Amino acid sequence: MTQPRPDEFIPPPECPVFEPSWEEFADPFAFINKIRPIAEKTGICKVRPPPDWQPPFACDVDRLHFTPRIQRLNELEAQTRVKLNFLDQIAKFWELQGCTLKIPHVERKILDLYQLNKLVIEEGGFDIVCRERRWTKIALKMGFAPGKAVGSHLRAHYERILYPYNLFQSGSNLLAPGLASKLMHLVADPNLEKCVQKPTLTNDAKDKEYKPHDLAQRQSVQPVETCTPARRAKRMRTEGGSVKKEPGEPCENRPNLRRRMGSFVAKPEPDPPQRDALGQTSWSCGLKKFVSSSEKEIPVQVKQEPEGRSVMSEVEKAKARNKKNAPAMSIVDLYVCLVCGSGSDEDRLLLCDGCDDSYHTFCLIPPLHDVPKGDWRCPKCLAQECSKPQEAFGFEQACRDYTLRAFGDMADSFKSDYFNMPVHMVPTELVEKEFWRLVSTIEEDVTVEYGADIASKEFGSGFPIRNGKFKLAPEDEDYLNSGWNLNNMPVMDPSVLTHVTADICGMKLPWLYVGMCFSSFCWHIEDHWSYSINYLHWGEPKTWYGAPGYAAEQLEEVMKKLAPELFESQPDLLHQLVTIMNPNILMAYGVPIYRTNQCAGEFVITFPRAYHSGFNQGFNFAEAVNFCTVDWMPLGRQCVDHYRMLRRYCVFSHDEMICKMACKADTLDVVLASAVQKDMAIMIREERKLRENIRKMGVVNSHPAQYDLLPDEERQCARCRTTCYLSALTCPCSRGVLVCLHHVQDLCSCPVNCYTLHYKYTLDDLYPMMKAIALRAESYNDWASHVTEILEAKLDKKKSLAEFRALIEESEAKAFPDNDLLRQLRLVTQDAEKCSSVAQQLLNGKRKTRFRSGGGKSQNQLTVEELKSFVRQLYNLPCSIHQAPLLKELLNHVEDFQQHSEKVLAEEAPSAAEIQGLLDSSGELDVALPEVPVLRERLEQARWLEAVRGAGAQPASLSLDAMRRLIDQGVGLPPHASVEKAMARLQELLTVSEHWEDQARSLVKARPRHLLETLEAALQEVENIPAYLPNCLLLKDAVSRAKEWLQDAEGLQLGGRIPVLDTLSELVSRGRSIPIHLDPLPRLEVLVSEVQAWKECAAKTFLMKNSPFTLLEVLCPRCEASAAGQKPKSKKAKDMVQCSKKKTVKLDSVSDVERALSESKDSASAMATLGEVRLKEMDMLYSMRAFNESKLLLTKDWKGLQFCVCPDAPVGAMLQCELCRDLFHSGCVPDPADPRGSQPWLCPLCRRSERPPLDRVLPLLASLQRLRVRLPEGDALRYLIERTVRWQHRVQQVSAALKLPVAQERASASPCAKAFCSSSPSQEWNGSGQSQAAFYIEQRCIPLQGLSKELEQLMVEGLLLQVTLPETQKLYHVLLHRLSAQAADSTTQKHHAQGRSQAQNEDGHCSLKREAVSGTDRKAKRRLERDGVDGGGRCRAKKPQKKKIKLNKNKSRDSKAAPSSPSLTSDPSPSEDSEEDMALCPAEDCQQPEGDEVDWVQCDGSCNQWFHQVCVGVSPELAEKEDYICVNCTVKDGHVRK
Predict the structure, then answer these.
(1) What is the pLDDT of residues 794-827, one digit of tens each?
(2) Is 758 exposed, middle or buried (CB count within 10 Å of its CB: 0-12, 13-18, 19+)?
(3) What is the C-alpha to C-alpha distance for residues 1334 and 1212, in angstroms, rounded to an integer?
(4) pTM to 2 decimals?
(5) Distances from the Cα of 562 to the Cα of 574, 579, 582, 589, 1248, angstroms
(6) H or E, element range at 440
(7) For residues 1215 and 1221, what is the distance between their CA atoms, to the nearest angstrom?
(8) What does the pLDDT look like over 1061-1108, one tens digit per residue?
(9) Going by DSSP bridges, is the β-strand pair 358-360/349-351 parallel, antiparallel, or unpaired?
(10) What value does the CA radius of gyration of the chain take, rounded to a whole number of Å?
């Protein structure tokens, strides 16, 4: 372990830490009284509450704001502050003489000038040290290594910096004028050159400039008007009359008359003080002056001397006479040196900037060899400035008001920046050592802030209080009344402070403390030497140091000895909480110091007169309060006497508190009453003595006074500041001034008989109060004598147990002290109650025993000897017990049982029933009988033999555990022949069974696994063992499962069938679980692994990253409707067409498809299943496209419909999926990969895979065919490829028939397309009757108007294929560019034709007037047609003249696949009115509904065509109430739905 450095801080020993139980924690004062003998030896202790005690933090954080104190760390430590004060005095001394103090370096460290000065004084002074050559000795004392000539450096620095100051302090620089001639010779003496001040305070370049801490100014002392030493005084040149100025000199525009003339009429005031960049105060003044002979011809009136001078020298009188008689005389002749009286050597004559006195540089002690650099003061001004008294040191208040959050941010930032690591990672030991290093150095100035003494009454306590603003949870209600709640502790009954009526902040009302790293609380004791308790609510730890109360005076003496300068100016320094001292220094002088780290949730208790200090490790929040117990009473009075001696004010009146407690004598605790009686006796004795003294002095006037009604500041003694209560003296000459009876002579100068004695109580009033207290204390004595009498009673004089209880109740009612007598009474009563209870239980037989069930002895049973002893104890108790005679009779029954048991045990083979009967009777006696264990052993032997015989009769249930259990039970039995024989047979059977069990286990778990023949041979040898062997049974089961598996494996390969993956996987799984070597298993495992590898390869080829779809979902056709708003169909029963009577397989989900593919017998049936799924996919998709297109044509508000994945109403830029035709917000889905629209955009629900090229997919199918295994994904891939090939063939046919171009067409090739695309997004869509934002479709889509059914089916199926084909891109570009151009031309013409018919509505929206049949005519026509068909009022129309044509779906699709004419568009014009055409629904994706009745709806646009309602997504109710306009009319006529 490394040794610490000499100057490194060594932590003191830890103080005691207590962790009370919940029972101890319930009463805080009882617990503190319990730990007081231990804790008061260390002064402080720490208490950790039980873990579950966690009070809520109830402070109002939002309202809490405070102004912290500023703490400069090196000013807190006593010895460091002494050094800083000394250096400030040195700096001030040289600053007044125009020089800057720079602290020199010696041996690469800053020289301690204070220690050097102190050691020189201790060695006898500078002259003696030089004469006796003690500089080397001083260097060794200062810690410098010998042999480096450090002494000569110390001497040079001393005589350069400290020697002039010491001469000034001794007054040697203020010599009489008669010594002038001697001074002239002293200057010429060459030996004096070694001891005198050099021309200026020269410094080395490496010396550190000392910046004064300006303690005087911060302690409310007026700053001395000094000037900065940065300016140098220059003389006037004799050749010219101009003044040479320094660049930074003030008043550059006017001449310095004082320097030019040697004096001036009106002395200008110094410039106001200014703060430099470092915060130091600078004072701008004039420059040092020399009187010049060239200025003698300037006449000016000489300024008058100050009136304060009562004694004038002869030179001054001559100057005065010259001022009166010769005003025109040369001014320079009037200035003479005040030391030598001569005016010669004007070049060496200095003028003081304070009083304008003149001195030769060589007349000063020590002489000056050159001009000072700044303002210069003469010795008298120096003495005047440096003798000003300093006020008491105290903390400054910060300029900023903080909130708790702001202070915390500042504190955490400071600590993390200082240690360069997160605040929670800084070790407490590092912070502690760094703190004590900082407070002891003068080289580093670290300033912190401390939010101390914040009143909880204003912002709320951290603990919950009643009627507070903080709302408590029901489970936290207990904290309101907890004794450890610091709001309750000072005012609880055991606390003496509860009798102080005033709410004293900090004592009765808690104070809050918000700390940061290094913020400290200095050495102090609590007010009135009371207890204190501090609770850290949260935050980083708080480090404490404490000294026990008996060492308080020792600590004070050590601090006064080490820092006497501080106590000379401030005797009560330790009561101001502004001074700390290193605990290591105090411990070195014998003061016992202890420490602790208080963490969050912990209490720290300080005991009476225990000095304590400490600092905060970081940002935290603590709360503290005082309390006083009975043991504090004598110390409280002693503290008041101590305060009187120090002239320190009291927080409350001790005498007032005693008198108020005496007035409540009947309710006081007895122990407290006794303490009050003793304290009151001292108080009355002292008061009587004081009143007799003033009566003898001649005070005759007296008057009663209600001092308890006056504030404390109005009844303080003018001399000692003690708060008066019992009496005080006043004089008519001094209104509002009073003194206590200890300081009669300090009241005033009037005769004593003029004084008036004011008293609260007369002595006759005080004696009855003390007598009442004495009666309260003496009531305990009567009770104690009665208790002593009954405890010592004998025989028939014994009292009953009830009387003992009554005495205990009386002690509790009167709150008698818990002393030895009361504890003895309680102990005797408890023993008697226990004996009575036990005796009653023995008599009633209520004790629980286990004898009847053959169990063990009860722990609380009495032995026979104990029963006899218990009976004797009953008769020896101090009280009488009525159960004693009955227990004597019980003892007789026990003796009879012992005789019967001895007879039964003597027999060779006793019966079990007889033994059990004896045990039953012993249980009723409830006594531990010695015969019972022997009877129990014989009973256990008989029962064990019966169990062995029963197990042998049933071999199937005789397991190894049963045999071991029987053997274990037999081992514990006492030796017997029958027991030994049965044990031998069991052991032999167990050995054989264990051997074959191990053998079977090894065969099952063998690696490599054994052959089937080996295991069958082992089974033949196991069958003859009469026991239950689990491993042998497992071996038998494994053999049977292996035979069955081999049969299944052979059947799987019969007939050349291709196995299904699920069947193959299940077979491999079964084979792996069989612990037997199976020849076909490895081949099957390899096959399954290859299939899994194929699936992974296929998944990488098709699935997108983070795809929600499985491989099967991507490969097979879609069988589930997407969530993008598919409207469910509501079909009527009579509209449903049964295609076949055969029951079809349900294919509504992917799991259904997977199950159907797995159950299919061959690939052909699988392809048929996938074909059905494809038909379902196409039907579902067409319905979805129709529904999504129809949503945009509804006239009602779109808020009821779902768009996009949000699903919200369409607004702004929208994207339309080419496949499902639904709209999506451009911000909810990814943008198109190609913004130019070269590829169709699909929504996230329609784009299900990566769509690899076909050349990447074909190898997957080939590799699958080589594996010879069927799986659903493989069937789906095969169907996908076949479907793709068929689609490519259809594309080729349609391209040839329609003469579609092969090359891709660009969007920029057709100007019409551009016009259509540019106009399409500008189309606004609004809901009916709603004012909502319009939307537009952002990307280009294939227009459905005019698109033939065949091309639409081709495009849809091409988009459904999960592979990338060039034909898909070509077909998409052809449809997009050609149809867009046609639609754009048509739309443009329509808009130009109808542009003049637009009108502005009242709400600002434009409406388009249709030139076709008006809405009223159309509705009337529909009603007539509906009435002609059926009069039911339903919105359903049949073709009136011709029966509806039922079309076969398959035939319809075939007809659509082969159009009659090769054209891209169909003609939806209703020019032909034939009924054959009207029997067909012109919807693009007609679903061809069949049935007896089909609902139709007629377009209200210009085409007047009829549509199936189910094909255009219109309900009967909607068709009846609203106009319907088809898609083609919407585009052509420019209808806008509102």
Answers:
(1) 877 888 888 888 888 888 887 777 766 787 888 8
(2) buried
(3) 6
(4) 0.48
(5) 14, 12, 11, 10, 87
(6) none
(7) 9
(8) 777 888 888 888 888 888 888 888 888 888 888 888 988 888 888 888
(9) antiparallel
(10) 57
